[in-house]
Amino acid sequence: MNDIVYASATRIAQAIRHKEISAEEVVQAHLDRIGQVNGALNAVVQLCADRAVSEAKAADEALARGDSVGPLHGVPMTLKDSLDTEGIISTGGTKGRESFVPSEDSVVAARLRAAGAILLGKTNTPEFTLAGETDNLIYGRTNNPYNRDRIPGGSSGGAAAIIASGGSPLDMGSDTGGSIRMPAHFCGIAGLKPNTGRVPRTGHIVPYGMGAVDALTQNGPMARYVEDLALTLPIISGPDWRDPAIVPMRLRDPADVSMEGLRIAMHTDNGIKTPTPETQEAVRSAARALEDMGAVLEEVTPDALEMIPDITPNLNGGDGRAWVRRLLDRAGTTEISPFLQNRFDSAEPISTERFSQTLELLDQYRSRMLGFMEDYDAILCPTAAIAACPHGETWSDENKSAFTYTGAYNMTGWPGAVVRGGTSLDGMPIGVQAVSRPWREDVALAIASRLESALGGWQKPEL
Question: What pTM did the predictor assign?
């Protein structure tokens, strides 16, 4: 097969099962591609090439014997370094774990491997995944494949960069305020934040049991093609009997969702940060495409979004980020990244009374958003107000509100999918975000898939 490194995971799995190509050939092609591009990107920070080739040979032998195989049999993948991987250094971007080698896989890693996927290596992440830029004291910064002077986003920036460049067809990100969706937007790929309670976080650097911020963090798939998000989600979903937030909720098939009559609320400005004209046009182009498919679009902005600036700072930093200090203590980290230090410096502890009031405001926000969503099946909106900015500018005064478009739906807990919908004036990808009702990942994925077909989706970088 030509250009196997740009094929979807779905197509790769089919080709291996039909013996059009061997798993060993596929794995080696991706290892070669990582070797070609990683010097420019610094996206893959740990490589397990020998193990990957050995597992690929075993996968081919199993197929030759006629053994039953999983849906990802022989498909290579990378995994974000915030996820534990048995036998492979897993730092979470923090110095205290610089040499940490887990004795077992995180739940999502174990489920993907049980489905037949083969791990190529680990991808870069900021310290504890708590930044919109991918940089840390262990591995340094990761670059955007469309312009190395720009960020790939965070915290799943290494994953997005290597996927966009053909080094991996599939990775698993985590998303606390947009850490799957923003890198997908910045690097022009597809990503899904599942509903809160869908995918276990066991073995993730920010685990379950995080108190007031527990519901914000979700693990979810990233790929060049939406079909791979739909392929992967059922594999990683469902209770593991350790993460107490996981619900055995029915998972529906995106293929069963029709655009005809689907009610979609669309907005290009959340009232907090106005997006660039190109970003707004990408959303409008997506809206027009969906209307052509029979969806019913209404331009309206949820008024509850106005509450975000009053909730987010106190929710994440109202305890002076003591919850982050506990993570540092568990990891044994004493030297922290400048970005994380800035997060501590900017976090002003508030009274217990004010913190409990913040939790009440959060519940009020969720209620108002539910009331809004009663009339719609989905929301179509920007992923961020800007395309990928230069390194070091994520939290400038000009940009710090640009990323409120994703965090809005970590607070509701709803599913959100991102797919490339346009291009900035300087050639950077622009993603559009489809958010659906609670537990309806099928709707978000169906919209993203239709937009991928209509607007072109991922485009190969010149790298």
Answer: 0.98
